[in-house]
Design goal:
homodimer, alpha/beta, 434 Repressor (Amino-terminal Domain), Rossmann fold, 6-stranded parallel beta sheet, 6-stranded mixed beta sheet, about 15% strand, DNA-binding
Chain lengths: ~325, ~325
DNA sequence: CTGAAAGCGCTAACAT
DNA sequence: ATGTTAGCGCTTTCAG
C-alpha cells in the first residue's frame, strides 16, 4: 500500500455532506465566529463522519503559514544526546509548544551539509525556528535566519541588534559563585575559564573578574579549559604548577570541574579543605563526582520554555524583547 | 518582520528569467533527463541568480508526497533523553536518512494528547514514519499507521502480518548468554525477566528457557524485574530468599542487573565468584557498575539504520521484508 | 452569515 | 525536448 492510496476526505466532501459551501467548512475549521449554530453543527458532524483532517500542504499553500516550528541543532547526534543541556532545553521548548497550535519538529544537523536544512527553512516548511547550539557562528544558521524568524539559545557570537535570544545570566552567575567563595573566607581564588570564542566562556570569566575586582582580590590564576574534562584537567595542572597556590577554584563548567578534581585528587590536594571548587551547570555530573560539586545551576528547561514563548510571540506579531536573561542559582554541595 | 514578507522566487520567475516554461524548470529541479543542455544551463543560472528554492507545500500538494519522514517517540522527554537506547536508534535513523533526499523530523509525544501527532500524520505532512517506543500498543500509533507506512522498532505487541519492524534477536541473545554461563560451568542458573507485556521481555525469557532445556538443566528461579533497577533488586531478593541457591543469574536488562548487583553486594555474595551475572543491552551502565557487567550488546545504531532503510524502501515501492532481526553480541567483562 | 471565484506554487499528463 | 493545461486542497476577498 502506498502513501497516496491512503487519502483522507477533502474539504469539498465535507461541504457536500454538510450541505454548505467550502468556505463555511473552512470557517468552522479555523474557528471563525461568523457561522450560524446550525451550520456549525452540521459541519462538525460531517467532519466527524468523514474523519476529516485538513491537508496541511494545501492549507499552507493558501495561507502561507505552516503552524510548524523547528528546533535546529547544528551538532552531531552523539553530542546532542550526550549533553544533558540539550535534553533540558528541548524538553522546555517541547513543553511550551505542545500547548500551542504549533507542531514541533526537531532537526539534528549531523552529517548534513547544511543545504538540506537551509532548504527546508527556505521552502516554507516552517514558520519559525529555535537554534540551539554551542557554536552559533555557522553560516547556514544565518541563512535560516534570513528565511524565518529565529530565536537563539544563548547570546549569538556576533549578535546583531535585531536578533532574538534567551540566555542565562552567565556573568552574574559567575560573580555570585566567586562571591560565595569569598564569603567562605577564600582569598586566593583561581578560575578555569571556557573558550573565548563562546559567549558563555567570555561572560563567566567576566563575572569572576568583576567579583575579584570589587573584593580587591588579585587574580591568582586564569586558565582556559575549553569546556572539556581533559581541558579542565590540563588547566588545573598548570594552576598547580604555577606559583600562586590557590585556596579555591571557580570552574566555568561541571565537565571541566570533573577533570580538575581528578588532578587535585591525584596531587593529594583535599577538596574542599585545601582547595574549594565551584562548578557551573549543575549537570548530573555534579552529584556523581566525589566530593559532590557545589555549582551554579542553569535554568535550561526554563530557557527552552522562554525561547518557545518568544518565538510564538514573534509569530503572533508581538514584539518580544530581543534579549531575555534568566537568573542562575547556586547549589551548595560538598566541594565548597 | 513576519514570515510572509520573506518570500522566495517562484518557479514562474525562474522560468521567465531563463526564457523557458515552468515545466522545463520543474524538470530541471526534479532531475529529469529530457532537457537540452542549453535549457539546463540557463535554468540553473536563473535558479542561482534568484536563489530559488521550491515551495514545499506547493510541491507536496501537486505531487502528494512530502519527502519528509518522521520519527515518532511516544515517550515523555525525560525518558527519551535519559535512555541511551533512543539516542543510538535515532542516531542510526538519522545517519541513513541524512544521505537520502528525505528530511527527518523528530516527534516526541510527551504531553501530547495524541491528536496532534495523528493529525500531523494524517494531514499529509509526512510520507512515512518510524515508531520508536517501549510500549507500541498506544492506540494512536495505529491511527498513524493507517495514514502512512510505518516501521516499528521492535516487534509490536500485537504484530499484524503486514506490519514492518526491525528487532534484535532477543531470544537468540538470551540463549547465547545462558549458554555462555553453562560453558563457564554454571549449573544453577536463575533469571530475572522483563515484563510479559513487552516482546523483549517475553523473547529473552524464552531464550533462557530454551538454553536451560536443551542443556537439561532445571530452572532454578524465574522472577519478573519489570525492566527497572528497583524491580531487579526486588527480584534478586526473592531469588536469594528462595530455596534454589543459584550460581549464576541471567538478567534481561542492564538496569535490572544493577539493582540486582546492589542486593548481591549487600548480601555479601561475591560476583562473579559466588554468583555470575550476565545482563542485556550493553548500555553505559555496564561499565559503570563494579564489577563491570558481562552483557549482550544490542545493535541499536544498526537497528536505526535498518529501520530507515526499510522505510525508504517502502516509500520507493519496494517490498522489504516485514521483519528484520538483528544479531546480538556477548560482551564479556568482569561479572561472568 | 454564506457562497462564488480567484488564486497559493507546483507537478504531470498531453500535445506538439 | 518543450510548452500548454489542468488541477492538488485549501484560504480569502468580495458580493450578496
Amino acid at each position: 500500500m502506498t502513501a497516496q492510496s491512503r487519502s483522507t476526505a477533502t474539504i469539498e466532501e465535507v461541504a457536500r455532506l454538510a450541505g454548505v459551501s467550502r468556505s463555511t467548512v473552512s470557517r468552522v475549521v479555523n474557528g471563525s465566529t461568523a457561522v450560524s449554530p446550525e451550520a456549525l453543527e452540521s459541519v462538525r458532524a460531517a467532519i466527524d463522519d468523514l474523519n476529516y483532517v485538513p491537508n496541511r500542504a494545501a492549507r499552507s499553500l493558501a495561507s502561507s503559514r505552516t503552524l510548524a516550528v523547528a528546533v535546529i541543532i547544528p551538532e552531531d547526534t552523539h553530542r546532542f544526546f550526550g549533553d544533558p543541556f540539550f535534553a533540558a532545553i528541548v524538553s522546555g521548548i517541547n513543553a511550551t509548544i505542545a500547548s500551542s497550535p504549533y507542531v514541533l519538529t526537531l532537526f539534528i544537523a549531523s552529517n548534513d551539509p547544511g543545504d538540506k536544512m537551509v532548504g527546508y527553512a527556505r521552502s516554507g516548511s516552517i514558520d519559525g525556528a529555535i537554534v540551539v547550539s554551542h557554536h552559533t557562528s555557522d553560516t547556514f544558521v544565518s541563512a535560516i535566519a534570513s528565511a524565518v524568524p529565529v530565536v537563539y539559545a544563548g547570546r549569538p557570537d556576533h549578535a546583531r541588534p535585531n536578533d532574538y535570544y534567551v540566555d542565562v545570566d552567565n556573568a552574574a552567575g559567575a560573580r555570585d559563585a566567586v562571591e560565595y567563595l569569598i564569603g567562605q573566607g577564600r582569598r586566593r581564588i583561581a578560575t578555569i575559564a571556557g573558550p573565548a570564542s563562546m559567549s558563555a566562556g567570555v561572560d563567566r570569566l567576566a563575572g569572576y573578574r568583576a567579583a575579584m575586582r570589587s573584593a580587591g582580590l588579585p587574580e591568582v590564576a586564569v586558565e582556559d579549559g575549553d569546556f572539556t574534562a581533559e581541558g579542565g584537567a590540563a588547566a588545573m595542572r598548570r594552576i598547580l604548577e604555577g606559583k600562586g597556590k590557590p585556596d579555591a577554584v571557580f570552574i566555568a563548567s561541571d565537565l571541566m570541574a570533573r577533570g580538575a578534581m581528578g588532578v587535585l585528587q591525584a596531587a593529594r590536594v583535599r577538596v574542599p579543605d585545601d582547595v574549594a571548587v565551584v562548578g557551573f551547570d549543575d549537570s548530573q555530573l555534579a552529584t556523581s563526582v566525589s566530593p559532590t560539586l557545589t555549582t551554579m545551576r542553569q535554568p535550561s528547561f526554563a530557557q527552552g520554555q522562554t525561547m518557545a514563548r518568544v518565538l510564538l510571540g514573534l509569530l503572533e506579531g508581538d514584539e518580544p524583547p530581543h534579549a531575555t536573561i534568566l537568573p542562575t542559582e547556586l547549589i551548595v554541595r560538598e566541594s565548597a
